[in-house]
Design brief:
Alpha-Beta Plaits, eight-stranded antiparallel barrel, two-stranded antiparallel ribbon, 10 helices, 27% strand, elongated
């Protein structure tokens, strides 16, 4: 049906902020008040780390996590998952009040919102509404779409508001879908994009026992269209998964990638050891 909307339905959840900092090692070594500064910093970070209390005997969800970044792109990365962008801004402001923050130099940040694209059900929903004679974007059509989205939000609440996995390593990268010349993702028919995303997703599912993936949308929020977080105990799986996906048509023809940021989980109580040049086992 040519009158089917080309836009896949999406549902959104947690607001996400990645903060990458360079650490001023020279200033830190020259500071006479390191112990007090660390006490204040670790207290502030511990307060941010746990989020909402889960039901029963389950532990609190982790909504902020600290990582030691490998390479020249930074030294520390903070990842925050919250209910709103206002909550993210409160975190930024709270951390800026600590003395430890004066030793941090911003290198990179990324704002996004956890997103699930409903490619599999979008066309069925659009076709069903067309068969009912509902005009696209009419009040009746909008109300019907919202009912569908409400059901999906309820069914996928845990995926929309996830806890940050306890894995030892993180790999984060922003990405776009190409829209140049004949390689324009947004000019493809919905059915074709649905099939490409299905095939793309099947690759990720084969790695589901080794890596946790969280996709967040950033169109209109930051410089790229999506952010991808991968969490795994073995960083080699990042290479294996992304390499295999490069051969997938959705990536090989229509994907453009930004920089990759890889970090090792740094428990808050190991921050002092980190400032001394030591990093322990994050398991």
């Amino acid at each position: 049906m040519t009158d089917i909307s080309p836009v896949p339905l999406t549902i959104e959840g947690a607001s996400v902020l990645h903060q990458v900092f360079e650490f001023d090692w020279k200033a830190w070594r020259g500071s006479p008040d390191r112990h007090r500064i660390l006490e204040e910093a670790t207290a502030a970070l511990r307060e941010l780390e746990p989020g909402k209390q889960s039901e029963g005997d389950q532990p609190k969800t982790v909504q902020s996590a600290l990582y030691s970044v490998l390479g020249h792109k930074g030294d520390l990365m903070l990842v925050h998952f919250r209910d709103s962008v206002e909550d993210l801004n409160r975190i930024e402001l709270a951390l800026a009040q600590t003395a430890f923050h004066s030793f941090l130099r911003p290198k990179f940040s990324y704002l996004s919102i956890v997103e699930l694209s409903l490619y599999e059900s979008s066309r069925k929903t659009y076709a069903s509404l067309a068969e009912q004679g509902l005009e696209q974007h009419s009040p009746e059509w909008n109300a019907a779409i919202e009912k569908v989205l409400d059901r999906q939000r309820e069914a996928m609440a845990q995926r929309l508001f996830p806890s940050i996995p306890a894995a030892k390593h993180i790999c984060f990268y922003p990405m776009d879908r190409l829209r140049t010349g004949k390689q324009n993702w947004y000019a493809l028919p919905l059915d074709q994009r649905q099939q490409l995303m299905h095939d793309h997703g099947m690759i990720g599912r084969r790695y589901g026992d080794r890596v946790r993936q969280i996709i967040s949308g950033s169109i209109g929020l930051d410089d790229w269209e999506w952010g991808v977080d991968l969490f795994a105990d073995d960083p080699v799986v990042f290479k294996q998964l992304i390499y295999e996906m490069r051969f997938d048509e959705a990536s090989s023809l229509y994907a453009d990638f930004s920089s990759f940021y890889v970090g090792i989980r740094l428990p808050i109580d190991q921050l002092e050891a980190w400032t001394e040049g030591r990093i322990g086992d994050a398991s």
